[in-house]
Amino acid sequence: MGSSHFLLFLSLITFSLYPTTTTATVSTATLDVATAVQNTLDLLNPTLFQQQQTQTPPLENTSSPFTFTLHPRSSIHHNHLQHHDYESLTLARLTRDSHRVTFLTTKLDLAIAGANKSVMNTDSMLKLEDLSVPVRSGISQGSGEYFARVGLGTPAQHYYMVIDTGSDINWLQCKPCKKCYQQTDPVFNPLGSKSYHSLSCRSQQCASLDVTACRNNKCLYQVSYGDGSFTVGNFVTETVSFGRSGSVPKVALGCGHDNEGLFVGAAGLLGLGGGSLSLPSQIKATSFSYCLVDRDSRMASTLEFNSAPPSNSVTAPLLRNAKITTYLYVGLTGISVGGRPLSIPPSIFAVDRTGRGGAIVDSGTAVTRLQTQAYNSLRDAFKKQASNLKPTTGFSLFDTCFDLSSKTRVTVPTVSFNFAGGKSLPLKPQNYLIPVNSHGKFCLAFAPTDSSLSIIGNIQQQGTRVGYDLSKSVVSFSPHNC
User: Fold this and answer.
1) Same domain (yes/no): 272, 379
2) What is the pLDDT of residues 243-274, one digit of tens each?
3) In which element (H, E) is residue 383 found?
């Protein structure tokens, strides 16, 4: 064999044993670092806060029969200004978020164990005789809730109430208060409403409560949350008004006379879950949708009922878990980083025969939680593809952070959720790489969980209209529709 033929033969052998590596194209997006950091500074500026408080709220969206305005909590309450810097505010938010996740996972565990119903001991109850709408972000109180502006009673009085897709029971603080936390609006007075009516212990609504008691044939309720917060009082019916778009009578809700915990600012809570006592179920809505503005924003958006989803929606199956009717599960099948699907078994995101597993979309959880295997795969792929970013130490529950203090804009790998049916939802960079202080430290806004339940949080939902078609069992995601 001639030398030239031998060299050709050798090169073919070498190529077959050690293939030449090629760099596949990585899908990227641009993160505006400077704007994100400036927003953290503006949020804690008292002068700007006062100026923006006087701005005219947006007009109601009249395309929906029933509409509430949604606001971030920081836009209606000044408690966040008590934090000396953005880092301490972020730590408070993450602490609250951890309690929220504990509440959701514990509630599921109790439902699977068949221990989700109980009757209160009335001796431990308080002595009662002694006693379309905007949505805003609730981050300033160390929580990720958003507030809807809701009309209650006849004549209607308007209140800021937390929206919660992980709960069914609607409730608000009521006079007389045995103990009430501070809220932005005056406390609701049942004596001032012509449409207020107590529910009897034999009513269907009372029988549907998870925790209930009876006193003088009046139904009592109690709801507890993962951080130790709770509300206790009478279970009643009231008229709910949707701005100028109409009202619905006889909606069952809790009139809380003892309300303790971290609900500062809001008058109560709207349950948007899948149970029979949730607001969508009671008003017989065929669908509802919301769009969450940035958690540090003072802008507003809407919570809408019975409105058609935008034409550019990415759709996924809306799934249910027979063990717990409250949670709204989505047909998540995988995640992509840089345009490349991760090696995550689809079974991780599926509900099994025992009721464990699955992925829910939750308005009250801030940071998306993934089973450890899925999270590790996401984190490792992101770090590998983000080699242009300067790594730094972790922060609270975040273990993947970057020092972007010298940057104005940076290129980052894309992150997408993949759904059953082959649909994919690409996230904006600000939905997964967020500032944790005002000095350029950004962290990957996902966290691992030991629970079988995955949770898509509101950081990943911001700027996207999330819709639930209850009649067709479809979840829709429409970017840029706030």
Assistant:
1) no
2) 777 899 999 999 999 998 766 788 999 999 99
3) helix 372-385
Active-site residue identified among 97, 109, 294, 362:
362
Nearest-10 Cα torsion for 463, 465, 466, 467: 180
Asked if 440 and 405 sit in the same domain, the reply is yes
Task: Give the pLDDT confidence of 332-390 residue by residue, as tens digits.
Answer: 999 999 999 999 998 999 999 999 999 999 998 999 999 999 999 999 999 999 999 99
* Residues belonging to the chain: 482
Regarding whether 293 and 332 lie in a shared domain, the answer is no
**Cα–Cα distance, 461 to 445 (Å, whole number):** 12
- The answer to whether residue 362 is catalytic is yes
Question: Is-catalytic flag, 164?
Answer: yes
CA angle 294, 145, 177 (to 5 degrees): 145
The reported pTM is: 0.87
Q: What is the CATH number of the domain that holds 173?
A: 2.40.70.10
The count of structural domains within the chain is 2
C-beta separation of 163 from 138 below 8 A: no
- Of 109, 164, 227, 294, the active-site residue reads 164
The Cα 269–Cα 166 span in angstroms is: 11
3-class DSSP assignment, residue 115:
coil
